[in-house]
Structures
1.
Amino acid sequence: MNSKARTVILVLLSIVLGVMIGLFVIPSGGSNSFSGKGSKIDYILSLIDSQYVDKVDMDSLQDEAIRSFLADLDPHSVYMTAEEIKKENELLQGNFDGIGIQFRIIEDTIVVVQTINPGPSQRAGIMAGDRITKVDGKNVTGKEITNEKVFKLLRGKSGTKVSVAVKRPGISKEINYNLTRAAIPIHSVDYSGMIDANTGYIKLSQFTAKSHQEVHSALARLKKQGATQLLFDLRGNGGGYLDQAIDIADEFLPKDDLIVFTNGRYRGRNDYFATSKGLFEDGKVIVLIDEVAASASEIVSGALQDNDRAMIIGRRTFGKGLVQEQKSLPDGSAIRLTVARYYTPSGRCIQRPYISGDPEKYYTDFIERYANMEKHTDTISHADSLKYKTKKGRTVYGGGGIEPDVELPYYVYKKSDYYSTLLQKGLIYKYCFDYVDKNRESFKQYKDGQDFLNRYSIGENVLQKMLNFASEQKIDKRPLSSAENKEIKQLMKAYMAQNLYGDEYFYPSFLLIDEDVQKALPYFKK
């Protein structure tokens, strides 16, 4: 390279460096450096607020800064805005303020699936199948309507008023209702009932402030109905309040059995023991778990497994064993800071491994594991260091999550691509909803949901009409196996029962084709 070319390159480099590091102003007087008083974060935010060239949303900037450095700790230390706290508290406290409906958005329209008892909508006369067309006089149909927008429109402080207009099939004119919002209960026990003469079933979807009360009531009711053994379903239950998990586990364990202990750098060890108040301390118990069951669900299943009180059946749980304490901030927001870890009675840490500062990998690992379950390749290496002993000396394993005593494959049998497509696109549910909607008069021959379950069956003609409906949605019609034919009919009956009478009558029909439930039941005899 000649000297002239070298000179040109040096000049260009000096220009680039000048752009990168030279274009800033050094004030002629006064301090322009951090004094060391207060935190660097406060100083930088103050500097941006007072001197940055453009106007900045400081609240949003602070929120993102807090989220960023909490993410460097662990996957469950988080920052939550006041609005996020409000939404979660509604769920965990077991109620929210609104008009009391369950709805789905079908073909850009808000359709009432059922009204909640008790609630303003039910008292006013709104019915399943009604289409909500206006809220406070404004049109609410069209592609822009979302679940989030519906919540904002219909929820509100108890005692406030809202008007809704509905279109009811068979009636030409809109019907107008003036409703007063009220506290609407949220139940964490989705369903409880008898599967057979001896077997009770409880489906718990989350651990809210009222979960123990609901489970206790369900247990008392099932025992009166003759339940001597229980299938306790925690699949899909992501957790909730620690005290509720402890109280629910206490229903099954004798006095002084260790339920769980926590341990943290500044918190020390805290042990939680069963009392003498358990309502179901005798009789066989099977707990159903899956890959989504986490936190409080893992505390309950781990306690019953380690104390040899229940057989755990299903798939390895999520592995959320970090204890958070909520610290409120002046604007209503809060941080949830990890202060300890959960351990099962045998000493297993529930938390699965993670890399600090990489929360994305923590969740992508879970997604990959979920995909592996479909391929039946979700395996764990059992090192000697991960072996623990139950109360009676059985070997159980740590390493994150609760590993079941009996593993159920993700798919016990493989559904055909055709059947899977019908499920994934929601076409079976959609057809059943429309069918019930158009034939409500004919269903009045059944005096209640139980009468419907006892007497109604899906005919071959109704099944074929559903499959023809799917064809109209550009799903190529293909032959069904005899097992699939039978199962789809049962699923259709469950959906129709749900739309006509509510969840209480969905489960008795659906559990007959729930693969995990049907595979678990024989273990009561072992």
Note: The mean pLDDT is 85.
2.
Amino acid sequence: MAYYVVPEFDGYVRNNRIIWETAGEMVYLEPYGKDALRFRASKSLRIDEELNWTLQAPERAGHVQIDVDKERARIVNGKITATITGDGTVTYYKTETEEILLQEYWIDGRVHTAPLRRAREYRVTSGDRFQISLYFKEDSGEHFYGMGQDANDCFDLKGSTVELLQKNGKCTIPYLYSSKGYGFIWNNPAVGRAEFVKNHTMWHAQCAKQIDYIVIAGDTPDEINGHFTEITGRAPMLPEWAAGFWQCKLRYETQEELLEVAREYKRRNLPISVIVIDYFHWTMQGEWKFDPEKWPDPKAMVDELNEMGIKLMVSIWPTIDPRSENYAYMMKHNYLLRCEKGVDVVFMFFGPQTYVDTTHPEGQKYFWSRVKKNYYDIGIKTFWLDEAEPEMRPYDYDNVRMYFGNGQEVSNLYCVGYAKAFYDGLKAEKEEVCNLVRCAWLGSQRYGVVLWSGDIASTFDSLRKQLKAGLHVALCGIPWWTTDIGGFINGDPEDEEFRELIVRWFQFGVFCPIFRLHGFRLPYPVRDILNPDGYCGSGGPNEVWSFGERAYRIIADLLALRERLKPYLMKQMKIASKTGRPVMRPLFYDFSKDRETYQIGDEYMFGPDILVAPIVERQAVSRQVYLPAGADWTDAYTGQRIKGGCRIKTDAPLEKIPVFYRDGKNLDLF
């Protein structure tokens, strides 16, 4: 017969920290800033207190109360309370109401027989590294949001699973917001997965030294977000030029081609802030300098663009070819990724490639020194940090060695080191920092990065998914976000369906934090990416006048609309930098008491005063819009006033994106 008796609590308290251990495990439970508790545990019986990864030291907690009796220890830090019982079970509560926020899931805890499952499971991989699984009880009424960027068409993540890894178009930021009123930081860069399913919530790491997470309580999403971004960092102030329109395509092949596009924008009197030189403008991967045959005088190019008031952004890849001039030095000094087994090649793209090891502090500095010499010193001050995952073929994380450790344990950090290398280099020159990046993790925002959603399809299905992905990103500390307007893959400028799509995407793009056009347009060149001596050609045209006269008229109006929107946007960006509050955010962020908003992922707030409802279906000329309770709304086109808490049908011909102002605001945008 199996039965269970809860053992007496046998832990102790030291310096505001509860310490508990049993045969085979040690646990720390302590405050971490305001209204937050940090939990760490390991089977190695040692907690590595230096292993903070990207966490910042938060402000000191307020009055912390800890009491211990025979059955359990209890810790109170402001609005969050936790208990740990004698068997090690941890439960988190709202302090004021004692409502359970989160509770570990132990399956029956039987004695005198094998347990079905423990809440904290460890399986040794080697030494003091483990496969780790952490289980919490499921709550059927709970909704989950965040976790970075994943074009999975899920707004509420409840019922889904999320891989904890980085790929092109898949960006993991392991932070979760719960509709029950807490935030959860999984402070672990290991490859793994999270499950938000009907029978449990589970966090799994393939290789890690310890469990490490933080639970944050608060009364509103904004309050919780403020604590979260205090812990992980906030973006600097967005430069005003970055709020304008960015022109890009794959790819401008020559200096004169790019300059002629910039000149044409000026001839047409169209606003443009940034123009971008994409990849393979270089001599070879890993040399980070212009090909002099196609780009004979890059400094003169930069000077002419500056005279036109246009910033030049240049694509950087951290790939490095064994034939390149920097390879031998960087390999000798261990500045490159290595394979644990076999040849040091993780990516085949116009020949064999490995990557700069951006987790290596000296590797970061050397990488920047090459970029500074060949780009910054001629006046280029903003960069496109592509291939930031890093992309691998195949994704054998366990076969990659980084300075920080094996790829399976630390690879999610690669993108942070990449952004930091350029941030540190630019700040040393006293420059403002605004770089485009394809991947992010906890804390990336403080290094001045614009996250974009990767190489996505040019379809309405893709557009719909990007909207939801952007809302999840907004909750993860990243206020600077964008997509390739029109999608990246397969868009045909001569196709009427694509012309409709790019107009609708431009309408969405106007109301994104960063307004950026990019794409690999048809017709495609013939190329062989496995040929080391192959030529990387360009796709079709991708300027705003490339998609037919009707689309051009609408897009030109949208460029002007963005200019009118910029003062409002810059005001919101100042708030984002100071408080962490995202500019683009889900409806429930501002209207958390309206439970209907937790199900709506195809509308959003753009700052506190503008509700945006993009058209994401082909040939749609109207749509249903939900206007949240707790505010009055004004149709930005007609001036009609509507009381919140209702659904309305609004017209949306191709020339119109549904927009509503809150509480009598009139921003005079249309």
Note: The chain has a mean pLDDT of 96.
3.
Amino acid sequence: MAKEEKKQLLEEKNIHLWFEGAPVALCTMRLELNLDANAIFAYSKMMNVQPEHIKEVTFDVICYDSVRIIVDTLTDVKYRNLDIPRNGVFGMDTPIRIRNVQTRNVEFVLKSVTTTSGQVWNNEEKKRFNMSLEQESIYNVLGDLHKQFLENCTRENIDQTKLILSPKFEDLYWLCACGALNWSDEEKCSGCGVGKDWLMVNTIHDNLRKQDEQRKIDNEKIRLQAAEKEKLEKKRQKEEFEKRKAEYAHQLKKQNSKKHRHVIFIVSLILVVLIAGGSGTYFFAVPYFRYNNAVTAMNNGNFDEAIAKFDKMKGYLDSDELRDKCVYSKATNEFYGGSKEKAAELFASVINYKDSNEKYIESKLAVAEDLMVNEDYLEAYKIYLELETSEKDVPAVKDCKDKLYLQGKELMRLNHLNAALETYTLLGDYKKSQNLVKECKYLLAKREYDNTRYKSAIQKYEEIKGYKDVDNILKKLYNLSIIISAANDDESPAVWDAFDEKCPKCGKTTQYICEFYNDGKYKFTIRCVNEEHNEEITGKYKIEDNKIYLSKYVNGISTWSERGTVKKVNLNEVAVDGKNTSIQITDFINEHNKETVIIYGNKISEEMMSTG
């Protein structure tokens, strides 16, 4: 067993520091004296805060004595051979030997970061880690409203155990409640996946306070409804008891006359059983007794039990009609003392029984009325549309449309575009809703494109051809649409091949495999005859007009550099290996190759998609 090293902790800081544009953040710093080696070692824990995987980090270590005087500087210290994903940490297990024994504190100064795709970020301005990313406890910030925040998480199926910090929203970045740093244009947290807009809305004290007050009102309403239901149930039980008592007295009066008929029935039943043998009990006696049990449950108000029993009767006597009667009675109870939504469901299930259709409409209108009170105008209006209710029949419809229209405007102001789109789509011809539908789609398409979700963006632009500058945008994205047409929503890419090209390293024959994904990511694979030169390059791309751009991270944000030009596109002609499209393009993989290459792939036409 290895001997345990003796260590003395000289300095340790749990810090969460960053500076504008840095691809990594500094989480902790530790300084130890190794007594066995009689040497001082420094440790740092850094975190990758940008999308690309990190391959190498270079930094300086400034050494201070106990009174903060510089006693030494270690230059170009490196963490090598890394493969650190977004939000991954590294460095805490890598000791850095400190030369000056007077060192009691150290400072890490970031110099460069290299990603696995070959992109290099340099700290040209020699910035220091000086911006604190520390966050307060969300429980302490929200106080009594934290319970409402947790309820909102549960309602949206969000893992509340990860959201323990108070979020921060700045111009260049935002910190999620899980602690992850995200760039300002990222709509979802890179760490836990929670939406930025949702997090902003659901940590505003005024919003939570209103929701909390409404929750208390709803709970009180539920309590009163339960009390009223209990009161009605006791009243019903009393009336049922009086009814049964009267029936029992009536039965006693007729007992003598019935006794004779009852004996005849029993004797007849016994004879039938005897004649039929053992199977007679099943075919005659058992259904009769089950029927009586179901009727008894119905008369006692146990509708669920009665419904279950009648369901097993399979049309025995009038069991189907009695089952509908039970459902109708249960629906009536739900309407007056339970849930009007549940009542509507039950009335709908027996829509042809008595006046169930009218009762269904009445129940749904009552549900819509409750939704209006709770300012859920969208769901209320869906009910009015379902029932084809006019403003003449129900005046509340006009009020609902007015408030829903204004709610859509507020949703657009808050940039909740999908919700606004649903709102204005439902409103149809009301006011200028159709134009607002196009505006929502226009803004959504732009947002999708800005976030490199290209296929989704193009589809949305296609839906609003002729609106604003959409036709020009689609023309600008024509080559992009061709290149990604074979990419699927299941994250499989459109694959393009270039054969018999030159290897960037040795100039020998090589094959390019270009994979373009719907979400703006690419993977270029180089397969050289010299297998040692095989290489894989990843990153993000965009294609506008006839230009191909690849991404590069500068100061923490993605910038684009032109890497290729589309020269010629040949559609619907069999090319290599049966592929139907070829594109002549300048070499965007090998920057040193000034010649054009031809890449081959399949463009999916609308006819091909419609036939699978």
Note: The chain has a mean pLDDT of 85.
